[in-house]
Amino acid sequence: MSVLDSRSIRWMEYIPETTLGTTPTNPTMLAFPGDLVDFTIGGQAEFEEYSCLKGPVDTDPLSNGKATKTGESHKVSVTIKPSGLGMLPYVLCAATNATYVPGITMLPVSIGAKIGTEYCVVSGCVLEKLSLDFKDKKSAAEMTLDFVGIDRTDWGADYKGTGAHATAPSSAPYTMSSLSNVLYDAAAPSAADITLDSLKLDISNKIDPVTDISVVAPSKIGSWSYGLREIALDMGATCMGVGVQDDVFGGAAHTFAVTLGGKTFTLSNVVWTNAPDVKGGPENLIGMSLSCSPQAARLAIA
pLDDT tens-digit profile of 144-185? Predict the structure, then answer.
């Protein structure tokens, strides 16, 4: 018997859905835009646990519990070293999956996975959170994608039919060298007495299931309800002056802009909500980590 170890193929890909929860027939699957690092297919069967009476001849009345399955929930998490920005429209609810203006359109996908010789599809997936992290100058960027889904198939036969599986991307992943035209309040960060050591952008949607008892899927999810979007910016900074701490205490709103992958990201109404310590030991650089209010910030991509 062979175990599923590092000799086993693992792969994950996706395909846009025309109808929420319905995987296209004979799909030509798409690769996530970058080197696939790992993935998780999660969720759970949902149960009600309760006590009941087992009858007049029960010989163990102290053990009278029961667990009844009532539904399912499904989640998928994907981590890549990104070389493209193709998942941004999905988390921004853009008008189409090829546009980048934040909007209100739900863009569902089916996500397929292969482990060893078995395949599984999670359908009705919407992107709940995208995190793009430039940790330091020695690391390639990392993108984490968190989806919620409606249904899944049992592990078994290939789902592509006469379609095709995606090919792994070959482009080099983004690094800090991929960032250009960095502006803080329309000027170089040095004008504010800081240099940037790290950068992280989180875009998240509050998404709740909408129950529909007519739905065939065990989850009984017929659609998704969207709450407010949050955009969080975290910057690691080394200081050339400590006035930036005064600025944080002042509560002013800022703008931040950067170009990546041919797109210019502009964040406005960036209000730093943490009051970072200034550590002044004899040997360390003076630096700080700045985090903005995720509810206040707004994002434009051009």
Answer: 999 999 999 999 999 999 999 999 999 999 999 999 999 999
Domain of 107 in residue numbering reads as 10-45+66-301
pLDDT of residue 5: 80
> Does residue 36 belong to any structural domain of this protein?
yes
What is the rounded average pLDDT of the residues 111-138? 96
If we measure between CA atoms, which residue out of 206, 237, 246, 238 comes closest to residue 224?
A: 206
When divided into structural domains, the chain yields a total of: 1
Task: Determine, yes or no, domain membership for 97.
Answer: yes
> Would residue 61 count as lying in a domain?
no
Alpha carbons 284 and 43: distance in angstroms, whole number: 44
19 lies in some domain:
yes
pLDDT > 90: percent of the chain:
79
pLDDT of residue 205: 96
